[in-house]
Amino acid sequence: MLVECHPHADPEAWLLENPGFVSGGNLRWWRDQFAVEERRNEEQGLGDAYDQLSDEASKIAPGSDGMIFLPAMQGAMAPEWNGAARGVFYGLTLAHTRDHMTRAILEGSAFALRDILEAMRDSGLGVRRLTIVGGGAKGPLWRQIKADVTGLPVRVPESVETTATGAAILAAVGAGVHAGVADAVEAFVSFRPDEHEPDPSAREAYDEAYRRYRELYFALVPVFEGGS
Q1: Strands 130-131, 154-155: parallel, antiparallel or unpaired by DSSP?
Q2: What pLDDT shows up at residue 6?
Q3: How much helix, strand and coil, in percent to the nearest 5, is found in the chain?
Q4: pTM above 0.90, yes or no
Q5: CA–CA gap between residue 25 and residue 97 (Å, rounded)
């Protein structure tokens, strides 16, 4: 009840996925509700609002000085499927700032990603790297956090519009331009040179924060279910 298996468009492969985890939506909610100045700057051509938020969050140490965010804004899809779960900021003190909360959102989504990867490993898959696409691929801080939390290198395709790329790959195979999906991928897909490697100095802080994230979630399960 964390990942599910589907037939793949490539007859030589299967797709193992978590079907509904909301990651970028959490950050978009934060930007829309609590980044008025950054959005105003963006409207005036003074920089992307997400980049401004990330620049400030990058000054906060890994682990957000004890703050944990549970990214269950539409129910939880990790560490388990639970529609009654809700988003939570935990560990707030007078010493914390909005930048701590921004970083905690980025880290909380990375912790949920680690939950999913652990389930994939438990199913017998050897996970070697992360390929990040879509809006979540834009920010270098978030990519580095995902690398540090999961212990895996993170790369980004030259084109992050992967739905269109996938359609083109399948069309090329169907038209006989390429013999198979793997051959077409070699022709259509390339990656940016700035791959993010895990930072060993952040590992201990993130292992501890991940442990607390899971303890917090399971401690709150009776509260979530009592409110449903």
Answers
A1: parallel
A2: 94
A3: 50, 10, 35
A4: yes
A5: 21
